[in-house]
Write a structure and sequence with these properties.
Two copies of one chain form a homodimer. By secondary structure, chain A is of the alpha+beta class. Chain A has nine helices and 17 strands. In chain A, α1 crosses α3, α3 (94-110) packs parallel to α9 and α7 packs across α9. Chains A and B meet through α5, β12 and β13 of A and α5, β12 and β13 of B.
């Protein structure tokens, strides 16, 4: 097989993956299907841990490359069925990141004699709280399965390299008031009305755009859930707001938390609560490893910053330098009009095929 | 029995009623108990309709007085058990309006030879949406049970007459945005952030205080519930806000609705939604009936405006002039520190005993 001409219709394979629903916590059927496909490939050692499945070559090569991707999606938004129009596939998870899974699955089935050993990691529950992650489950149950020299995550990058990633934290804000009858609200204090200040600050928030190791990041601070109210006949005395903060790799989690607390401070009073409920650190851009550097040079790949948090941070913590390289479009992830195009799918497939077949080396023949 | 000296400890009877929980939709056990008590009184015709119970004298008197009260409470707030300290009873519903029920129950048991016929109406589901009201259920199933010359609601008024009542409407506001990944919020629009404007307007709202038939009303506009959010990893595209508006009897429901829409207008865009989901009109102050007028004069009762909506509006619609007169303190209704004192309990008991024993007449002996 020649790098650059996949024998598989990758758009059709992605569509097949989209058509197996796999919202977080419900990845079982999709994992079953992937596991079955991997077990059918001669020479792959396949391990299943919960709703995660790992397939490895064991060829005794000098280097091992880990290709990893999550199988779950966010909740559907009227886009649960795959639909192909020309060279574009629409549907939930098409970008984030079933197109990446399609590349991994095809490489596992077709690249039988790689120059490096390869580990394919398909894992569950990435789109929800970090402590529920299937990759964390693997890390705790079978850390040996995640070992490698470099890791490449198939998160949506439009076929470019996105190095490092921003960190993410969720903070729960609880504002208090005092219940009263809504015909006499002056006897109490409406906690929901108190949200006006916090939400105004979030709406006016001007994010930093720091440049780290040549990559420009762009931070964000967003309310993702709000809930308050006792009954239709009661002035509410409590409201809960869940805020998500994305922070660049030039800040530690503690620095990022201090920043958010500073933004909220004018609206927080004694008795209110601001608490970090979920945290995943940022990862510094990691482009130095010869396997990555040679792939970038060979394919002329564009390198940029990853704004979203990805599990490159988790691999970094494990001591495995990691990058993001996937066919999806990150700006469409989680949106109703999520889609993926054929060109970046084939570009990523070609780049990874080259990496697996050539390792740190140059193409040996005419390409 | 002499008016003014109840043979019953009304504070203890109220405590017993508080200790039978009766949150809206769960009034069954309390209704059972009240029904049993009423059926034990000779000469009362007792009817049960769902979780409502009505007891009537049938003495062929020239006038019929309706005494009515709701049996339900709002959800508990750490105050579900009755606690008596001296002449004060603390607990859920003590003010709104189990103290009123205690007066009614005691009158039903002790005033055996009234000068007027009396109808005692104990009904369910007043604290929730108007269309669920037990009084509405009675009105539809057995309107004959609600007939009378005047109606007196035992809603909390601190032992004063509160004439008429404010109207109430609930409006649901739905603001829209566009989903996105919270690491790239600029690709969408956060619907929860859009709440800042609406909640700021509610927080700054300056209410009218119109004087109607000598009674000063005070309007109100309050958020009572807020809900929004798709997942911790998604910029939300929709948020729901439930608003409660209380309006004085000088405005029709249509005028009141137009006013709320005007307040909200600067923050509402095409595709958003503002909808009245629940409505109960105001009631004009009704103090002219001789039965009411003579009771006010006899007892020297203070007359004021009712800020909260009560079922006097429903009796008005049925053609029965109605007022509020109850022992509770309306400013404590629905609050965690809800309580009632012995003095207004006994004052209301005395006034109503006088009304039942004397009708439109004067006391016949020394008092």
């Amino acid at each position: 097989m020649t790098p650059g001409s996949p024998s598989t219709d990758l758009l059709a394979l992605t569509a097949a993956l989209v058509d197996v629903p796999s919202e977080s916590h419900a990845e079982g059927p999709l994992t079953d299907w992937i596991e079955q496909e991997l077990r059918a490939v001669p020479g792959l050692a396949v391990d299943r841990v919960g709703d995660n499945v790992v397939a490895r070559t064991t060829l005794g090569r000098a280097h091992r490359v880990v290709l990893a991707g999550h199988t779950d999606t966010v909740p559907a938004n009227g886009n649960e069925r795959a639909r192909i129009e020309g060279d574009v596939l629409w549907g939930l998870g098409s970008s984030d990141m079933k197109s990446g899974l399609a590349v991994m699955l095809d490489l596992a089935r077709t690249v039988r004699a790689p120059a490096v050993d390869v580990t394919y990691v398909f894992y569950a529950r990435e789109e929800i709280a970090a402590h529920l992650s299937g990759l964390l489950e693997l890390q705790e149950a079978r850390p040996d399965l995640l070992a490698g020299d470099v890791a490449i995550l198939g998160e949506p990058t439009g076929g470019e390299i996105e190095a490092g990633c921003q960190g993410t934290m969720r903070l729960e804000v609880v504002l208090h008031g005092a219940r009263a009858h809504p015909a006499r609200p002056w006897m109490g204090r409406n906690a929901v009305h108190r949200l006006a200040g916090v939400l105004g600050a979030l709406d006016r928030y001007e994010e930093r755009r720091p440049v780290v190791a040549g990559c420009e990041y762009r931070e964000a601070l967003q309310a993702v859930r709000v809930e308050g109210g006792v009954a239709g006949n009661v002035v509410p005395d409590e409201v809960h707001l869940l805020i998500n903060h994305r922070f660049a790799p030039d800040r530690t989690p503690a620095e990022a938390e201090a920043h958010v607390r500073e933004v909220l401070a004018p609206f927080i009073e004694d008795g209110d609560r601001v608490e970090v409920v979920d945290l995943a650190p940022a990862a510094y851009p990691a482009l130095e490893h010869p396997l990555i550097a040679s792939m970038i040079e060979r394919e002329g790949l564009v390198v940029g910053a990853k704004l979203g948090w990805t599990d490159v941070a988790r691999f970094s913590e494990l001591g495995v330098p990691a990058i993001n390289l996937g066919p999806g479009d990150a700006t469409l992830a989680h949106a109703a009009d999520e889609r993926v195009s054929r060109a970046p799918l084939e570009r990523v497939h070609r780049a990874l095929t080259g990496l697996l077949l050539l390792g740190v080396g140059e193409p040996s023949g005419p390409s």
